[in-house]
Specification:
A seven-stranded mixed β-sheet has the order 3-2-1-4-7-6-5, with helices on both faces. The chain starts with a helix and ends in an 8-residue tail after the last helix. A hairpin with a 6-residue loop joins strand 1 and strand 2. Helix content is about 40%, strand content about 15%. By secondary structure, it is α+β, with helices and mostly antiparallel strands. It is built from eight helices and seven strands. The structure holds zinc ion (ZN). The site of zinc ion has 5 residues, from loops.
Amino acid sequence: MSKLDFVIEELVTANRVLANEGIVDSFGHVSARHPDNPNHYLLSRARAPERIEGGDIVEYTLEVEPIDKTAPAPYLERFIHGAIYEARPDVHAVVHNHSPSVIPFGVTSKKLKPFLHMCAHIGHEVPTWDSRDKFGDTPLLVSDMAMGRDLARLLGSRPTTLMRGHGATVVGRSVRHAVFIAIYLEVGAKLQMQAMPLGEIKFLSAGEIDQIVGRLNDYTLNRAWENWARRAGREMQEG
Ligand SMILES: [Zn+2]
């Protein structure tokens, strides 16, 4: 199997996993940088994640032009992916989702921060990108490269950012890594809302976060991936 075929199959599995775990519904998407050309990336045509198959995956330039000019209709928010790959050479996968538990943190001053060890991978503190700051009243969707680049600027070197009244964007060094963080972002947000009424939360320290992140290896990612993939009716690929 070629590297490209491998990544396409990973993306199909990622879409099914994210849907099955409640991170995306009929909306939201996941992409991967092209394994043979860092200036291109792979993303499904506009379709609900649970329905995506290998033939739906389209190759784009970082300026989000499809390589195949006859490619079917794209996601409107594909600019999120192109702008982040342009800004972050270390990123090989991007998840954009509207999972419900992250939304309250994007519209209040409460910061989303990790206190469960598995959630350390969301970063020290999750910032919120507010489209209104620079672009005024919009439908809140990232609909051009200027918006995508502004989002990428706020993301900086972080793994996650919230988007006010909209959702979140998560990046990773692989498809499995980005899906892992996206799932634990939702878990962390839900837990933080459960913990807040009980009293003051003892969050992970910066040092604890760094140590946990430093220990994340393929064994952990693959253990989770196999479980999530099979739960979504997909087999884990070797590699
Ligand atoms: Zn969106």
